[in-house]
Amino acid sequence: MDRREFIKTIGVAGGAMLVGRAAGASVRNEAEVRRESSADPLLAGVCDIHIHCLPDTRARCIDELALAGEAKRAGYRALMYKSNDWSCHDRAWLIRQALPEFEVFGSLCMNRVHGDKVNVFAAEQALKTTGSLCRCIWMPTLSAAYQHRCDKLPGPGIPVLDDRGRVLPEVVRVMELCAEADIIFASGHSSPQESLILARKAKEIGVRKFVVTHVNSLIWKLTRDQIRQAVDLGAFVEYCYLPRLWGPGSGNPQFERQSREEFLHYATTVPERSFISTDLGQQGNPNPIDGMRTCIRELLDAGMPQREIDRMVRHNPAYLIGLQEKTGRLEA
Angle 106-19-107 (CA atoms, 0-180°, nearest 5)? Predict the structure, then answer.
């Protein structure tokens, strides 16, 4: 089915949920289709800008169209999708035809599907795509040289630095493109030290939306001191709720679940330059909307001020994807 036929099908079907089922795109059962659809005050205005959905090369619990419909009904302001292999900014344009007045964005990861090094041409084309909905270019994730070394994966992986620790020219050029387009340049699965080097170069180039990815997760954990270094260099830091949910009985049983205390330790570090994403969508893990609801409740129960929660799940991510201006107090 080409894109014109897809849009026509959406109009005939009369709703995103029915389209997903008719096209075979949604893997949800009938109980999930009947999920409560009224707006949730706890989720009003939320922007989750790191979610993995179908279609993808890995098993996911829900498709992009279905999740966008649920998020809109729940009161979300925006979503940004991430695929480790494929672009999703083009699909975001189609989803917007099905769900008018809801903000859906996509992103691009510089993994091996685009070649053996960071691909400047792929970034240029992403930024030219209809709708200008690519709002983040991630450095290599599953193909990152750092992850390949840590996990002893075959091949060297895709580097972001040269042998002397300098940012590679192609990475610098992607930074320049992100600066010109005023979109996010994200560290991907770079090491903590690589991320700080990237942050320094991004500041030099004039990237306004440099993000250090999931600084509370696994081999990418930053210390509080490293987080403050990154922020001093102009970075935003991302905390993901996924580590609070994985572990035995989840879709990621191989990982140790992060404690409530450790997650809160991160979430209370420079909230003015932080944001929280779920990083959910994996098969066997909670629906991203349920995950975000649980996260917000946990922050409230811990006594975090509402204004700081708003910064991290509403204002800062909205700024990063271009939905509002940054304020003087960095509550963007």
Answer: 5
Could you give the CA distance from residue 45 to residue 316 in angstroms, rounded to a whole number?
12
CA–CA dist 211, 234 (Å, integer): 9
The DSSP result for 126-171, as a single string, is HHHSTT--EEEEEPPSTTBHHHHHHHT-SS--B-SB-TTSPBPHHH
pTM of the model: 0.88
User: Residue 108 — φ and ψ, nearest 5°?
Assistant: -140, 130
What is the C-alpha separation between 318 and 312, in angstroms, rounded?
Answer: 9
Residue type, 152: K
User: Taking a C-beta distance cutoff of 8 angstroms, is the pair 137, 178 a contact?
Assistant: yes
User: Using alpha carbons only, what angle is made at residue 230 by residues 224 and 236, rounded to the nearest 5 degrees?
Assistant: 100
In the DSSP assignment, the letter for residue 276 is E
- Residues 80-127 have pLDDT tens digits of 999 999 999 999 999 999 999 999 999 999 999 999 999 999 999 999
Q: What pLDDT, on a 0 to 100 scale, did the predictor assign at position 37?
A: 52
DSSP code per residue over 206-235: T-S-EEE--TTSGGGPPPHHHHHHHHHTT-
Task: Examine residue 55 and say whether the peptide bond preceding it is cis (omega within 30 degrees of 0).
Answer: yes
For the stretch 138-160, pLDDT in tens is 999 999 999 999 999 999 999 99
* Average of per-residue pLDDT values in the chain: 90
Cα atoms in the Cβ-side hemisphere of radius 13 Å centred on 67? 31
Please name the amino acid found at residue 82.
K
| Nearest-angstrom CA–CA distance, 248 and 245 | 9
* Contacts for 69 with CB less than 8 Å, ≥ 6 apart: 15, 16, 17, 98, 99
